[in-house]
Amino acid sequence: MGNPAVTMKTLAQQLGVSVTTVSNAYSKPDRLSEELREQVFATAKELGYCGPSAAGRALRSGKTGICGFLFGGPLSAAFSDPYSVLFLAGLSEAMESYESSVLLLRADAGDDDLLGRAPVDAVVSGSPTAAHPGLQRLAGRGVRVVGTMQSDDADWVAIDDREAGRLVGLHLARLGHRRVTLLVPGAESGPEPRETDLGPDGLLPPGFPGLGCGFAEARILGLRETMPDADVRVVSAGHNGKQSGRSAGAYVLDDQLRPSAIVALSDVLALGVWEAVQQRGLTPGRDVSIAGFDDLPDAGFVGLTSVHQPITEKGRIAGHLAMDPSYPKRQVLLPIELKVRASTGPAPLTTR
Amino acid sequence: MGNPAVTMKTLAQQLGVSVTTVSNAYSKPDRLSEELREQVFATAKELGYCGPSAAGRALRSGKTGICGFLFGGPLSAAFSDPYSVLFLAGLSEAMESYESSVLLLRADAGDDDLLGRAPVDAVVSGSPTAAHPGLQRLAGRGVRVVGTMQSDDADWVAIDDREAGRLVGLHLARLGHRRVTLLVPGAESGPEPRETDLGPDGLLPPGFPGLGCGFAEARILGLRETMPDADVRVVSAGHNGKQSGRSAGAYVLDDQLRPSAIVALSDVLALGVWEAVQQRGLTPGRDVSIAGFDDLPDAGFVGLTSVHQPITEKGRIAGHLAMDPSYPKRQVLLPIELKVRASTGPAPLTTR
DNA sequence: CCCGACAGGTTGATCGATAAAGTGAACGTT
DNA sequence: AACGTTCACTTTATCGATCAACCTGTCGGG
Fold it and tell me: pLDDT tens digit string along A243-259?
């Protein structure tokens, strides 16, 4: 039952010892006799004391045993995206070995607060929404920050997104594709797909939704690099979900100048496109090729060509980087691999 | 960059005002002039102060703005179980409306600590591992506890598991099934399926893994109630995953006395069974019927008969119960519905 | 016989912030 | 003119625990 007011002081008084001794019973067992320690615990149970309060301990010691997982956008979206779920699985697995827990944080502009006020020892930037403004300051406060995109200064675990783009580009180029549409997960703009051309530098035009994604730019660059003379269009697909993948797919497929290949910057989108293709009675890999990134389990299931990355392992390593300052490699580049499946095939002659 | 030692005191000194005023600037805007407030923020930015520290605030005010999500077993398992992922999606969605965040907690015996020391205002018991010993004491400390199983005293959001069992039982009985095997998610015992008969009371024998599940008992009771003269066997399927569903399914299917229907107490298990059935070249719903519970998205996808419950909504409501003491209904029973799909059909004549 | 090491405590300061009560000036009220 | 109010802050007292530093016997070695 435990009265709310039961604290170490209460215990100490009851036992006739100092508060420090009670504290030691919990956190420094070797500093008092085994016997007394037992007594402390016995009295604790009796009075309904349930261990040192998180707040007090955190304030004094400066540690919380909590690692934040930062997600850009509504947290509920994190759970509908298999990528983050897999990442979280790895992250929380790592946390268990540190007896720490994971705090889900939403990284929203303006919401400096929730982030700044989070009681965490470290933060892992889960979605590759690279640099949240508040992150910098957090780092100053002694919070370790771990990214999931390459950068010069910070700690990170990432893949070579440019290389990932190249893998797909090369593959499609060899299959003879010349007209390609890229689907980028956009901001939370409505379901309306929006279209653009790439700038002269091969990058997204400034202000185009999807820009913030971080990985988008690199993947596009890599792809362009290996398909220099292809006709590449870019369509923003609203939020990163199967649903918007489907509608963006529809938009692209119904266009009179249908591309021979559609590359989605994430598998969720690609899977949506896959459905749109099926709905139209077309066969992926024959009538139109589809490729994605991340190689989610479902990709293997339906036969979607995708660039594999070890997502759960990524989460695990991020966890170690976050909790263990002495972890040797502070910047980890994970291997990737193109999984060629049935969803990509030679470009149809009519559209070559 | 923000020196670690930048605190409200620093700000106050720099500005020549009291610490309280700085505090008010953040949490009680109407208690100081707009002008001064701006100044405070300006200086904060200048000195790299990133808002009130969570620890200090939590200690003094007794609130953390954090809701714990309690999972029985390794947290990483929570992410491989679509049920908990869907639940978490709802929970975190609700949290956003309270500007609170979710802390993932592992409810392990012996690990009283991690739970007791968690800086939370409330805890939602995510997996139906009903009553963690520490929960009681937490409640005493002023932490609101929300369950996902029916009980008399506490707040909860749940479904009528017994009724769920009845729905399945009735359905199977009408289809003429007389020999049924129940698959219960067991403890983390190895992959070895283990078998048992139901006790005379129609309950699991004491000590049988799966007992702790909470919902298992009720569902079994309901099922038995509607199939009084069926031959019901129970098999424990190791941990709650597709994998163990498959091996438990194999175990059951390869038995000489193969049942005409297999009921898994969770869809993940059922989906595993489904795969085992397919692997053997059998057709679910014709050669052997399969039914599950929870109606995960994949269930609809492959055509698995299952008892639907609004999982995400459950999480949402749990969140409201946790964060809003004035939420009207403190005990919420959600509707369920049997979704009949292709995986169940008339019992084959040979096995009737 | 003195010294140092060690086990097993104690004391007092402190972590960063908020709650509650107080202060003084300006203003309106009857 | 006396009095109640409001505004805009300040003062003081904690919240619960940990840390650094300091006692106090005891025991073995030189």
Answer: 999 999 999 999 888 99
